[in-house]
Design goal:
- By secondary structure, the chain is of the alpha+beta class.
- It has helices at about 55-60, 80-100, 120-135, 140-150; strands at about 1-5, 15-20, 30-40, 65-75, 105-115, 155-165, 170-175.
- The protein has a domain at about 15-40 and about 55-150: L-amino peptidase D-ALA esterase/amidase (4-Layer Sandwich), CATH 3.60.70.12.
- Helix content is about 30%, strand content about 30%.
Length: about 190
């Protein structure tokens, strides 16, 4: 039985989140970090379009079955940025890995926002460092992460659920999502 409950991405035990302003956007939160104390099962659905943003290319190549952290910036999609974009996505993974003492393959990277602009890696590294220090649990952390990934979204999208398995075990699920203007993503 699935029961929707008040909560977000930190509802499951062992998850922490942060959302900060790195300076990619003028005023809004623009960098989010989700961290799991133990490697978590990971699955990603990728676009089948021929043109893919740098973070998508990096994640498709690695396709790790588990992740310990995911970093997301908003305001810049890191798309149509060529080799430099790939290097920037890899650099984001490495920065998170350094902050959290992880192997970079255990870090997912995502970007959303304007297309065709190079990342300001000074701002991104600053945001990653801040977010790593601000990781926490609870509704405020959930809300900050959900807000940090927004671009043209008009509302935050987050939820949590409690599931009772057949053997009586309770499982908690937390989720966020984004998107309101995707044009033909071909997932």
């Amino acid at each position: 039985m699935v029961e929707m409950i008040d909560g977000g991405v930190t509802t499951p035990q062992g998850f922490k989140a942060a959302g900060v302003h790195s300076g990619v956007k003028y005023r809004s939160l623009d960098l989010g970090l989700l961290y799991s104390e133990v490697p978590a099962s990971a699955f990603a659905g990728f676009t089948s379009n021929n043109v893919k943003a740098a973070p998508v290319q990096v994640m498709m190549k690695e396709n790790s079955p588990t992740l310990s952290a995911v970093v997301v910036n908003s305001g810049n999609a890191n798309a149509l940025t060529g080799r430099r974009g790939i290097e920037d996505a890899i650099s984001m993974k490495q920065a998170v890995a350094n902050e959290l003492s992880l192997d970079p393959v255990q870090v997912g990277v995502m970007s959303t926002g304007l297309i065709g602009r190079f990342m300001d890696m000074h701002k991104i590294r600053y945001g990653i460092s801040r977010a790593a220090k601000e990781l926490s649990v609870g509704r405020e952390a959930d809300n900050l992460l959900a807000e940090a990934i927004m671009t043209t979204d008009t509302i935050k999208k987050e939820c949590a659920a409690r599931v009772r398995l057949r053997d009586g075990t309770l499982v908690y699920i937390g989720a966020i999502s984004k998107g309101s203007g995707m044009i033909s993503p071909h997932m």
